[in-house]
Amino acid sequence: MSEPAALQPSEYDGLVRRALDEDIGAGDVTTEATVAPDARGHGVLIAKSRLVVAGLEVAFAVFKAVAAERALAIETLVTDGDLVDPGTVLAVVDGPAAALLTAERTALNLLQRLSGIATATRAAVDATGGRITVLDTRKTTPTLRALEKYAVRVGGGRNHRFGLYDLVLIKDNHVRLAGGVTRAVEAARRRSPGLPIEIEAQTVAQAAEAADAGADFVSMGALTHSVQAADISFEIEPLGEAQ
Q1: Nearest residue to 239 (alpha-carbon basis) of 97, 139, 142
Q2: What angle do CA 221, 227, 233 make, to 5 degrees?
Q3: Cβ neighbours for 60, distance < 8 A, ≥ 6 positions apart
Q4: Helix boundaries (H) for 52-140
Q5: Is 7 left (phi over 0), alpha (psi -120 to 50) or beta?
């Protein structure tokens, strides 16, 4: 399996800030009341089910954003794309205990969702036996498209279009309005001769017609729009006061 194209910090830094603003608001009142400001914590990310890891750097960005300039040490024990068993330690994060607690839910939400997508994609790819290329769709969570499509790549799938502008995808409504699959494909070739064409087949007959027209691709919206989050926990133990 080829190495998936990496995420760039510019693709998730703004999202991380918005997610933390949404969760923290005026402050983490529970942590502020129960954890000393100078307490240090030892946090361990643990897989609780068999899963394909995706999104570690995004999760780390959450911890770093909350810790700010305070000392934070991260040890990564697996990499995105690894298939791991329950009980596998994914990473260790040592730092300010309060920051670890405050960042925990946002980091897990992102890591669990991306790992869930990668896991579902790997299962779909394996089920094809290498005979079919598994593609994703635009059925992604608003503002999470770059991350979710990255997770598909990590799982061994391929991205098709990122938006309405970079690939022709002919759906049932297009077929009805164009007067059939063949007419839709021909019109798309005239309008955008340099773009790939995909057909969303509703029946076996449509799939066959699409193949005859030379535009038969398989994509799965379920990889992103209804995937189950992977089961990952973050266990924190005290390390004592900062020196």
Answers
A1: 97
A2: 155
A3: 74, 91, 93, 107
A4: 56-67, 97-128
A5: beta
**pLDDT tens column, 162-192:** 778 777 888 889 988 999 888 998 999 999 9
d(CA 200, CA 210): 9
Q: In this predicted model, what pLDDT tens digit does every residue of 86-143 receive, in sequence order? A: 999 999 999 999 999 999 999 999 999 999 999 999 999 998 887 778 889 889 999 9
Supply the pTM of this predicted model: 0.84
Could you count the other beta carbons within 10 Å of the beta carbon of residue 183? 14
Q: Tokens 């991205």 belong to which residue?
A: 159
| DSSP codes joined into one string, 19-35 | HHHHHHTT--HHHHHHS
H or E, element range at 150? helix 145-154
Integer Cα distance of 80 and 29 in angstroms: 33
Q: How many CA atoms lie within 13 A of 77 on its CB side?
A: 12
Which of 222, 159, 224, 214 is CA-nearest to residue 188? 214
Q: Which of 9-13, 63-67, 205-209, 232-236 is the least confident region?
A: 205-209
Beta bridge partners of 89: 46
d(CA 200, CA 186): 15
**Cα radius of gyration rounded to whole Å, the chain:** 22
pLDDT averaged over the chain?
90
Q: CA-CA distance, 113 to 148, in Å (whole number)?
A: 8
Amino acid code (one letter) for 78:
V
Active-site residues, by number, are: 139
